[in-house]
Amino acid sequence: MSTVITSIDPHSPAEKAGITAGEQLLEINGHKIVDVLDYRFYGYDPETVLRLERDGHVRTVTIRKAEGQDLGLNFPTYLMDEMHRCANHCLFCFVDQMPPNMRPSLYIKDDDERLSFLLGNYTTLTNLSEREAQRIIDLHISPINVSVHATDPQLHCTLLGNKDAERSLEYIKAFCKAGIVMNGQIVVCPGWNDGDALRRTLRDLTDWQFSSCSLVPVGITKYRKGLARLRPVDRDCAREIIAIAEEFGQENLWRFGTRRFFCADELFLRAGLPLPEEEYYEGYRQLENGVGMLRSLEQEFLSAMKMEESDAVSRPFTIATGVAAAPFMRELMGKAKAYFPRLDAEVIAVENDFFGHTIDVTGLLTGQDIAAQLQGRVAGRRVLLTVHMLRHGETVFLDDYTVERLSHELGSPVRIVDADGGDLLDAILETEG
């Protein structure tokens, strides 16, 4: 733990109060400060009393500010503490299926409830101490993203590879009782937590009134060696998962007014079933987990398209996407061509040679696979790629290919498209650049 102040934001409440770097923050409004959650929550009030220490000398500073305004203090790390590393050995862990010699950050396994609340990461709660669990309840920290996978205690421990994982189920029940909003995730592994085991899980989550939960298929790469045997979700398995989720979804709609359980787009694509209509997603509560991403993209795209003149002209372009989403993107481009008759559009499905063909989602495509499979096919055309392929905030693919390198190797301009349909339309209709 390090609550020693490293710097002060200019013109911040802390600077105006005369707080300086090198002081240690001990308390805010009488509450001991351990990490970023304490700092954020106890520093929210418009009047805050800070207890500070330097070289054994303790002083108190009172700050008056706007409610919710940050005090302006910076610390050695974002969390003001060490990140909680994952103590599990999940049977389906994607990190364990990564190839060697990739950048170190891709092998980091965090399991930190603070990053769940602050950044949207998923946590199993197995690292949670009693103090931290009670703090979530006392401060009513919501929402948090929780990996559930199964509610049968023995199966839960087996899937997480942690004999002590059962206590995380007790935390989930306690949080539900306390009204903590949780967005859950179930990675469905055929032969393990599907079928009756999945029904048990959805029944328990219904009875506990868990907030919302997405169902996603397990990802299996060609580098899965020396690990528990898993098989991918095929067409029939995907249809069974969807049917079970729909059974409990309808019950929850009738009893509680919410579907509660949502299947990822990938399950509908694998099942060969049409995506649900927009109402299914209840405001896209699980969008960040791949639930409704394609439907949302389509709705935004079509709405933006109707605001354009139908005689618009753009330069020829190619959309490169994963195998799973390619049929959807071809259908969407078909609607675009019907509205813009002079549109020159094509969609190319890129096979994932890097991770193996069982990985068919767009977000896990690498620069080298795109380069190899588009070589000689996009001359004179722009190449459009979704931002989901890149490291957050950067222009680098999973394999460290840069967008610049890809563009150079293809001899075509590469345009990265944001995750909304409006930006896709803007990219399509670009006439310069």
Give structural notes:
Helix content is 33%, strand content 16%. By secondary structure, the protein is of the alpha/beta class. The chain has 3 domains: 7-74, Pdz3 Domain (Roll); 95-288, pyruvate-formate lyase- activating enzyme, CATH 3.80.30; 297-428, Rossmann fold, CATH 3.40.50. The strands form 4 sheets. It has a 5-stranded parallel beta sheet with strand order 7-8-9-10-11. A 4-stranded antiparallel beta sheet has the order 3-2-4-5, covered by helices on one side. A 4-stranded parallel beta sheet has the order 13-12-14-15, with helices on both faces. Strand 2 (24-28) and strand 3 form a beta hairpin. Helix 7 packs parallel to helix 8, helix 8 crosses helix 9 (265-271) and helix 12 (367-374) runs parallel beside helix 13. The longest helix is centred in the middle third of the chain and has 22 residues, at 235-256. The protein is globular, with a radius of gyration of 24 Å. The two termini are 49 Å apart. The model has no long low-confidence stretch (mean pLDDT 90).
